[in-house]
Amino acid sequence: MTVARWGRIGGLVSSVALVGLAMGGCSGGGAAPGAGAKDRGTCDPAADVTITVGERPTSDQAATLEAWTKSIAAFEKLHPNITIKDEETKYDVSTFSALLVGGTLPTTLQVPFTDIQSLIERGQAADITSYVKEDDVLSKLNPQLTSVTQNADGHTFGVVRAAYTMGLVYDRALFAKAGLDADAPPSTWDEVREDAATIAAKTGKAGFIIPTTANVGGWLLTSMAYSNGSLAEEGTGDATKVTLDTPGMRESLKFLHDVRWEDGAAGANFLHDNNTIRDDLAAGSVGQTLNGANLYNSVVIARGMPADDFGLAPFPAGDDSVGVLGGGNIQWFNPKASANQVCAALAWTKYYFLDRYVDQEAAVTWAKSQVADDLPVGLPEVPVVSEKQYATYLGWIEPYVNVPRANYRAYLDSLPDATIVSEPAVKAQELYAALDPVVQAALTRKDADPESLLRSAQSQVQDLVDAG
Predict the structure, then answer these.
(1) pLDDT tens column, 364-423
(2) Distance (Å, rounded) from C-alpha 303 to C-alpha 282?
(3) What does the angle CA 262 – CA 266 – CA 271 come to, to the nearest 5 degrees?
(4) Residue 31 has pLDDT above 70, yes or no
């Protein structure tokens, strides 16, 4: 697996270097902080320190909140010098800067892959490079993911705690009803289209459709364009060039147009949001769709789709694919925090999110608690640790795996060789919003002009990028 992103001169580069990510007693040694970073000096791992942690579950999530509270208590018992004050604050791009300036953001919280590079460039993320060396947990993080948290000089500004790629999600039961082999899902766009037509003809259900509203249409069209050889942005920062009127975008729109207008295989609802597509998928009304490969909980656990019906395959590949769009969660650390607070927040990050991947007792304890709560164990995911360490982890939890991993075999087998491409680094949500109407037009207007629509969207987003 490789993580790729656009370099400063606009070329696609691959970064697989692993900067040491470990607390290691919070030594102040190692590389000097990068430009604009705060040199906090060394930290004292035995010092009394209080940190604030965001993302406390809300009161309507009773079971999750109880587990969260117990985890904090257990952590404080292990680290009696660390006090955690938790709060419900979550990352919100519209309020983040103001809260940071006002000093009211927590010590640590989750930020999306999409935004970490912008935070780094603005000096809004703590440089943790000198604090995270030779740690027995963080040093085992998947080296193909760590570049997402690094600047051009290789300094580290966050910890990847979960990752995913886009995938083809399909209904195995509908495949069987249509006479298709659910264990041999399509891998190319032509195969997806053929199977969509077969599903529509044999079952009367939508053979293939994607969400098209609330920025999700633009997100998925961007993913399709990656597969067809075109990225949505080149360069970084002030040099960012928006590239929407491209062959990859036009080819992706033609695919959607043809499934809808030539094959009649897209169903009747062309204004799905991300919730309604999941409702219809769980209800057995959609044969194939595109989404994050981490969709199992949302459609099986939350919406009742039979576990055996949930199918997952690699994102379809075009002839000139630059890779598959990936994303996930990064633990962010407040640049105003002290050395002791940063080290304590790193300890919490390891304990709550990562220990189970490298400690057998933690893995088994986690797996048993999941099973006891009727929650899944063994879901498909992009490993945040090395392939070797992840295989060891799977061995620890194997007796407790309660999902049909064989149904995701094609997806799981694709991960070691996948090239994961980050989302657009600048104005990503605005870019997706501008593409939503373009996707909708391809599905609702037979005579839609994709080139004109893409040129207009490109100009619109470029203006937003240039305005800062």
Answers:
(1) 988 998 888 888 999 999 999 988 899 999 999 999 999 999 999 999 999 988 999 988
(2) 6
(3) 125
(4) no
Q: Are 194 and 353 in contact (CB under 8 A)?
A: no
Q: What single-letter DSSP state applies at residue 420?
A: E
Q: Which residue has the higher pLDDT, 106 or 35?
A: 106
How far apart CA 400 and CA 418 sit, in angstroms, is: 28
How far apart CA 411 and CA 409 sit, in angstroms, is: 5
Residue carrying structure tokens 């994102």: 315
Token output for 326: 């990936």
Q: Are strands 82-86 and 108-112 parallel, antiparallel or unpaired?
A: unpaired
Return d(Cα 110, Cα 74) in angstroms, integer: 21
DSSP labels, 1-54: -EEEEE-TTS-EEE---------GGG---SSPP-TT--------TTS-EEEEE-
pTM comes to 0.84
Give the residue carrying structure tokens 């989404």: 291
- The larger pLDDT score, comparing residue 148 to residue 400, is at 400
d(CA 97, CA 79): 31
Beta bridge partner(s), residue 260:
none
> What CA dihedral angle connects 270, 276, 278 and 284, to 10 degrees?
-70
Averaged pLDDT, 219-242: 94
Give pLDDT tens digits for 282-312: 999 999 999 999 999 999 999 999 999 999 9
Q: What is the dihedral of CA 134, 140, 146, 151, to 10 degrees?
A: 0
CA distances from 296 to 170, 277, 291, 458 (A): 11, 13, 11, 34
Q: Is 391 helix (H, G, I), strand (E, B) or coil?
A: helix
Q: Which residue intervals of 79-188 are DSSP H helices?
A: 96-102, 113-121, 172-177
Question: What residue ranges define each of the domains in the chain, with the CATH number in brackets?
Answer: 2-164+326-406 (3.40.190.10), 167-322+423-467 (3.40.190.10)
For residues 397 and 418, give the distance between their C-alpha atoms in angstroms, rounded to a whole number: 25
Dist. CA 391–CA 395, nearest whole Å: 6
The confidence band for 37, taking pLDDT boundaries of 50, 70 and 90, is low
Q: How confident is the model at residue 460 (pLDDT cuts 50, 70, 90)?
A: very high
- Does residue 10 register a pLDDT over 50? no
**H-assigned helices in 112-185:** 113-121, 172-177
